[in-house]
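As noted in the main text, all predictions were made from sequence alone. Below is one such record, for Aldolase/citrate lyase family protein.
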Amino acid sequence: MQLRDEIDQDKVLITAWSSSASADMAGALAGCGFDTVTVDMQHGAHDEASAFASAKAIFAAGKPAMLRIPVGRNDLASRALDMGFEAVIAPMINSVADADAFAKAMKYPPLGERSWGPTKALQMHRSHSPESYFAAANRETLALAMIETREAFAALDGILGNDGIDGIFVGPSDLSISWFNGAGVDPRNAELQDVLAEIGRRTREAGKFASIFAVDPSDVPGFARMGYRMAALNTDPGIFHAGAAVMLGKACA
Ligand code: 3PY
Ligand code: MG
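Prediction:
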């Protein structure tokens, strides 16, 4: 599948973040030059219908679709793969047990307990027969565990040690809340950057894929030096605001 191919090339990928419950908007983001689009069911407005329609729209625009599930909704993780999403991001994976439960839902036996039924995925990925999809799915679809608390940081080696976890996705906002014991939301805090660097380095050393949410696009080159190979750039309202500011600035210059 497309996302695994691109990850294997070790490029730094940029994902758009779709939070408006609109497949049209998700498809439009896919046409804007991003490498992938992530549909957000944790904090975004998507429900299952808009998320699954978005997967089709993103795929139709030639890009791989990723889904962030709400906390603990591992049932939606396997369903997302059946609907053709190529990666699932699971928030608040704070322990080895959380990672195990997520990986079980994401991977077919012997790695996990994913149930067979990739009807829509097969419709999208026509190069696959049912047999070849089954053989490829555990490697080609990605389980990304969110590291966004002190507990998750403490459990990092155990989480990375699960063969069904392909990589991590860092949530720097929640991590800052947890790291500084609720003092505030401060994802760009200087002290936190060392923690982000350590997570990136240890993930690479474990041979796994490191990705992260960038609250500011200018942070991405630094994240790449820390070992991260995917960054999410803001949400669709944020992208609108930034684009509108540029256009209005030119029009009113
Ligand atoms: C965080 O920064 O906590 C996130 O979950 C980013 O989406
Ligand atoms: Mg978070």
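The first strand starts at residue 13 and ends at 18. The two ends are 45 Å apart (CA to CA). These features were considered when defining construct boundaries for the mutagenesis experiments described in Section 2.9.
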